[in-house]
Specification:
The chain is α/β, with parallel strands linked by helices and 280 residues long. The protein has one domain: Rossmann fold. It has 8 helices and 7 strands; from the N terminus they run βαβαβαβαβαβααβα. The protein is globular, with a radius of gyration of 18 Å. The mean pLDDT is 96.
Length: 280
């Protein structure tokens, strides 16, 4: 029997990461789901501004996502990981390698959640900019360095980085009024370069990397938190759109020709008709 491929998805307790995990399972992958929220109801700071605190529980957990993965008929492993704490990264990856022996697909989806995201430049403590860079740039780089050697040993592997146009364009308004802050923008801009470097350096050795751009997506946190900052979750695409796009990219041979490129997830899903019933 052919050994199933193993995916490692960060930020998988809810939103886009959760959808990607489920769609990869539907495509036949075992999935290690990684995030901070292991159990339902855990309380962590998720306010986007220094002006107030919000630790009310967000919907979703690794327990919930793992159960959905297993409903698709493949294995799930919940792995605690904090992208702002480097000490948690290597143990998370090693646990998967020890128990399942491989990681074929790395999805760098998780990002910094917390104050500074929706604050103006002059109101943002510099240590919060550091937190953005740590979670959104350095953690994906470190995770890539951790998983790529065993991919190279097999001559095959995928790295999918969930990117954002915030890193390549000016916001339509100031942070808090429909735009975003510097930390999010500059960290996503830096992350953009990772996929291209991987493709150039390792493409001939079987490694494929993409920047997958989700566009505006109606996630649980978008609905709960972001209305106050000028974002209407009801106008976003379902997270399943990006889940279907990610699964197509790592399971379709033709996608290898896109190595190192920026992929518009919603356009890909629409053009390839990857999600039945969407768009309506």
């Amino acid at each position: 029997m052919t050994e199933r491929r193993v995916a490692f998805v960060t930020g998988a307790s809810r939103g886009i990461g959760k959808a990607i995990a489920v769609h990869l399972a539907r495509a036949g992958c075992d999935v290690a789901v990684a995030a901070r929220t292991v159990h339902d109801g855990e309380m962590r700071e998720h306010s986007s501004t220094v002006k107030r605190s919000d630790t009310t529980p967000l919907p979703g957990s690794l327990d919930e996502t793992a159960a959905l993965v297993e409903q698709e008929g493949t294995r799930a492993m919940g792995v605690f990981l904090d992208l702002t704490d480097r000490s948690t990264l290597a143990p998370a990856v090693q646990r998967v390698l020890d128990q399942w022996g491989r990681i074929d697909i790395l999805v760098n989806n998780g990002r910094y959640i917390g104050p500074g995201h929706m604050d103006h430049l002059l109101d943002t403590p510099v240590e919060l900019l550091d937190a953005h860079l740590e979670a959104n740039v350095m953690a994906p780089v470190i995770l890539s360095q951790l998983v790529l050697p065993q991919m190279l040993d097999r001559g095959d592997g995928f790295v999918v980085n969930i990117t954002s146009s915030a890193g390549s364009s000016n916001p339509p308004a100031a942070a808090g009024a429909g735009g975003w802050g510097l930390g999010y923008a500059m960290s996503k801009g830096a992350m953009h370069r990772l996929a291209g470097i991987i493709a150039v350096e390792l493409g001939e050795r079987g490694i494929v990397a993409f920047n997958l751009h989700p566009g505006f997506v109606a996630t649980e946190r978008m609905a709960q938190d972001m209305g106050a900052f000028g974002f209407d979750a009801s106008s976003g695409a379902p997270a399943d759109v990006i889940g279907a796009a990610a699964a197509w990219l790592v399971t379709t041979p033709a996608a290898r020709a896109l190595n190192g490129e920026w992929i518009e997830g919603q356009d890909l899903c629409r053009e390839r008709k990857l999600l039945p019933g969407w768009p309506a």
